[in-house]
Amino acid sequence: MDEIMRNLGTLNHNTTKRDPTCSVHFIDSTASYKDEQKFVKCLVSKSEDLEVNSVLRRKPVELATNRSLFEIGHNFEDVPNWLSIEQPVKTPLKNILRYMVENHLSTTVQIEINTMYFNCHILVLQSYSKFFLDLEVVPFAVTLPEEKVSQKAFMLIYKWMISDEPILERKSILEVFVAATYLRIESLLLHCWKYFNIIECFNEDTACILYIETKRNPALDIVRSIMLTRIRKFLLTFVATRDFFDVPLNHLIYLLSSNDICVNTEVEILFIMVRWLGHDWKQRQKYVNSLIPCIRFDLMPLWYLLYVRQVETHKLIKKLINIPKVNATFNETISKITSKMYGEKTNAKSFKQGTEHRQWIQDEMCPYFHHIACPYTRNINFIQFESYLTALQRQTLNRWVTVELIDLKKPKQCCIALHNFKI
Question: Cα–Cα distance between 349 and 375 in angstroms, integer?
């Protein structure tokens, strides 16, 4: 259809005016049935072109002795000023067609979706949908699966087809996108992607909501993955909800491995992993080895690595630490940090080097918050983390926007009131 429209545009550009034509088949009745050379198809615009003899190039028949007035030369067809006579007003064809389409007159196909029937014009559907265009034989009724094309989605899509300036509603965009994917409506899919690609439309909380809406629908996997990349400062609020438990393993690995997610401390990455695993430990314990590499242990406070075995009371965390691979990772990290501290004689002001940092935030509501280089923090446990998540659920909807990011090149003061200490 696009190719047809491009060809039409080229013709309109190259010619100023073109007479309407008709498609006509000319058949020589005197020829045999199998004689293909006596079968001609062409476009005609003048009534004179309908002369079968001239089209088939037959030899003129000998004139009879008694000829008609026309045959002897009397021609009453050439009337002076015929074309200058004022013509009666005719309604343009496009206006009539639009009226018929918009008012569903003389519809040619019926679309059935779960016992609901839509009367439509097949040419409208074929103009945009490759699904309908590829139908070899167009039946009177076409049944569509409701799980692919909902009744509401089809109504909105048909309305979009017959509208000159269509607008998609936010609340229905996913239903429309799924249906347009099944019906192969490329222009409508591009319209949906126009919104998906605008960060102002879907970012942080709105992206997270769309991410949740797209779960368990394979047609939306690409949209779902893109929305996941836009969750940064909103991460902890998302983790605090029960929707977080439905995040698949590969998406959780992406989140915990990302440099763009915002957390108060690297210890929260461990706690987030524990929260997800603990929701269904029997089924998810096999994923521990896949998740552990996401944690940047050398960005954790050294004291936490040393004392987590004695201080932390959470059963699942203690169980994780006793896993040989996890325990070995703890010991290796402690050894690495200790050697670096004593070998390079670093002090509390020095930030850990070698491992890429995440987006650190400074949430004053966090009960265990301390800057990454502060030596005075000694109170981080999973109970506090759960308490923090509970508090996040009770905050205003846009509170996450006000949380400040920490610039490691310009660290702020920490623990001034208690310790009179500057970073």
Answer: 9
Least confident of 80-84, 151-155, 156-160, 206-210: 80-84
Task: Say how far apart CA 219 and CA 178 lie, in whole Å.
Answer: 6
Beta strands in 60-132 (DSSP E): 109-113, 116-120
Q: What is the pLDDT of residue 353?
A: 53
| Helix or strand holding residue 43 (H, E) | strand 39-44
Which pTM value belongs to this model?
Answer: 0.75
Say whether 214 sits in a helix, a strand or coil. coil
Q: By the 8 A CB rule, do 382 and 271 touch?
A: yes
**Distance between CA 34 and CA 62 in Å, rounded?**
28
Read off the pLDDT of each residue in 365-374 and give the average, rounded to a whole number.
70
**Burial of 136 per CB tally in 10 Å (0-12, 13-18, 19+):** exposed
Of residues 284, 220, 275, the one with CA closest to residue 242: 275
| Region 106-133 average pLDDT | 95
Strand, coil or helix: 112: strand
Structure tokens belonging to residue 239: 């983790």
Question: So what's the pLDDT on residue 307?
Answer: 79
195: tokens are 């919104």
Residues in Cβ contact with 251 at an 8 Å cutoff, skipping those fewer than 6 apart: 225, 228
- 114: tokens are 């779960």
Q: How much is the pLDDT for 219?
A: 85
Residue 362 identity (one-letter amino acid) = Q
pLDDT in tens, 31-73: 655 555 556 677 777 766 666 666 555 455 555 567 777 777 7
3-state secondary structure (DSSP) of residue 360? strand
Which of 302-316, 331-345, 387-401 is the most confident on average? 387-401
Query: Which of 51, 48, 55 is closest to 75 using CA atoms?
Result: 48
Max intra-chain CA distance, the chain: 129
